[in-house]
Amino acid sequence: MSDLLARLPNRRNTAAILAVLLILLALTNTQYPISSTLLNWTGEEDLLPQVRGVFQLASGLTRPQPETKPYAPVSHTGVCPFGINVFLEQEVETEKRERALQMISEAGFKWIRQEFPWEDIEIHGQGDFYDHKWNKSAWGKYDNIVDLAEKYDLGIIARLDNPPAWSRARGDDAGTRAPPDDLNDFGDFVYTVVDRYKGRIKYYQIWNEPNIYPEWGEQPVDPEAYTELLKIGYTRAKEADPDCVIISGALASTIELGPRNLNDFIFLQRMYNAGVRDYFDILAMQGYGLWSGPYDRRMRPRVINFSRPLYIRDIMVKNGDENKLIWISEMNWNAVPADFPAKPYGYVTEEQQARYVVEAYKRAQAEWPWMGVVNFWFFKRADDSERDQAWYYFRMVEPDFTPLPVYHAVKEYANQPPVPGANCK
């Protein structure tokens, strides 16, 4: 139908007619009130934004829709979708790491996404895995994290990035997250980590948000260079453990066109053009809702909402990669205080956050068979020194482990009977 509508001579008039028909359909829905119906279409809570959203939704229906091939077989299925980001390496006390994982397990999560920062493991030089400042092995806390994750039956998504200063001639002047001068140095690090945890960690993510600043350092982002890094990381990881699963660096949602921030659609297509298809097993992206709820079905490429995975899936399908899953590395809504001076990530109440996160899991599971793990961003910070920053308010519990409403909501939902086809026991 959308292809037919796209060929009509006056798309604006067609959209207006469709919008009226959609509103009439909502009015005649005897099962749900119109406000609930429009919320489920637009992700908007209030009536005026809902009506405006219906017109925008109708306008989108006059354009070709993303091709998702929902019935295409995909690999690495059958995993529990409930994951969460943690910063356990920043917890000095092992008791706090354990308490965090205990609460995470009790809430029904089955995955933790934990960074294994290169600069914190191979600190002083190549092949040197000793922390000379504290006179101990640099592996100690990461071994402890792996031990504790196993104790609480939690799978680890190990994020490998953040090179040490010694890997760049310019050191940290190039950017603390800039890639190394010799990508093979990164490959050696990947091999070492995967070999050390073979049989204990299966999933590894190579880099994070390579399409935005500052994740590629003090330089323009570079899809071709990131693809080369991913190729080396993939190859060396498979050498260490042929059974490991490699996840691409999570693409950040942005409409900017460079040089420091590059639209995720363009970045991904250039990765495919550079030959990335055979060098990752699962594609990762970020999945923030920002200013609207999880059921915002408006398809507008220049507006970021929770429907954005449909566009990423469309690019994968067009490049013959429909047999791979998408995993969301970070998902949440920002529950900043109402009087917070800046709201760059949108704004919801804590009650809305709790409701939206559960609905996001429900939508992903019900509508997107090509979607795998969805990782909540994030469990907690080690302290509250960042309370003046908006991103701090994505947390699920306070630094002292006081849970917020979203913790209880996810715990209630994730501990219900298992998701069909997913191993959430």
Description:
The chain is an alpha/beta fold. The chain has two domains: 2-61, no CATH class; 82-414, Alpha-Beta Barrel (TIM Barrel). The chain contains 13 helices and ten strands. Strands 7-6-5-2-1-10-9-8 form an eight-stranded parallel beta sheet, with helices on one face. The protein has a two-stranded antiparallel sheet with strand order 3-4. It is globular and about 70 Å long. The mean pLDDT is 92.
Strand arrangement within the widest β-sheet reads 7-6-5-2-1-10-9-8
Chain-averaged pLDDT: 92
How many DSSP E strands?
10
Number of helices in the DSSP assignment: 13
CATH level 1 class label of the largest domain: Alpha Beta
Residues in helix, %: 25-40%
Identify the overall geometry: globular
User: Strand portion, in percent?
Assistant: 5-15%
Q: Any low-confidence stretches, pLDDT <50, length ≥5?
A: none
Order of helices and strands: HHHHEHEHEEHEHEHEHEHEHEH
Q: How would a textbook summarize the main sheet? A: 8 strands, parallel
Might you state the CATH topology name of the largest domain?
Answer: TIM Barrel
Number of domains: 2
Radius of gyration: 22 Å
So, the CATH homologous superfamily of the largest domain?
Answer: Glycosidases
Question: Which oligomeric state applies?
Answer: single chain
CATH architecture of the largest domain: Alpha-Beta Barrel
- Overall SS class: alpha/beta
Distance from N terminus to C terminus (CA atoms, Å) equals: 41 Å
Structural topology:
Layout: H1 2-6, H2 11-27, H3 34-42, H4 47-61, E1 82-86, H5 94-106, E2 111-115, H6 118-121, E3 130-131, E4 136-137, H7 140-151, E5 155-160, H8 183-196, E6 203-208, H9 223-240, E7 245-250, H10 264-273, E8 283-286, H11 309-318, E9 326-331, H12 350-367, E10 371-376, H13 405-414
Parallel strand pairs: 1-2, 1-10, 2-5, 5-6, 6-7, 8-9, 9-10
Antiparallel strand pairs: 3-4
Helix pairs in contact: 2-4, 3-4, 5-7, 8-9, 9-10, 12-13
